[in-house]
Amino acid sequence: xxxxxxxxxxxxxxxxxxxxxxxxxxxxxxxxxxxxxxxxxxxxxxxxxxxxxxxxxxxxxxxxxxxxxxxxxxxxxxxxxxxxxxxxxxxxxxxxxxxxxxxxxxxxxxxxxxxxxxxxxxxxxxxxxxxxx
Length: 133
Ligand code: CO
Hints:
Layout: E1 2-12, H1 15-26, E2 32-36, E3 41-48, E4 51-58, H2 64-72, E5 75-83, H3 86-95, E6 106-107, E7 113-117, E8 127-131
Parallel strand pairs: 1-4, 5-8
Antiparallel strand pairs: 1-5, 2-3, 3-4, 6-7, 7-8
Bound molecules: cobalt (II) ion.
């Protein structure tokens, strides 16, 4: 069951510059910053209500976000839904014939469990599911 929108991920070409831009223009303050090596990103979160804006900088050109930036430029990269039971959510998607990027949950930032769903089966939107633990 989906509980909330956990975050909206936005790919940026200069993380520090984008952080400053968000502070200045939207008046938001960063609530979390983390390098997630196995995803090839450094992320900065701004809490907005019960959700967050997540700015994503690529750790290299040969990473998913690096390739996204090269192909499409900066912009919305994914939407992440918070779920109460990630294993159950993945089983439901699989039963509905939706292709999964991650067949099993893996470690996300902030100690969460995450899994990505294939955009081809989600209206060209890269969907991430997040479970707090
Ligand atoms: Co995310």
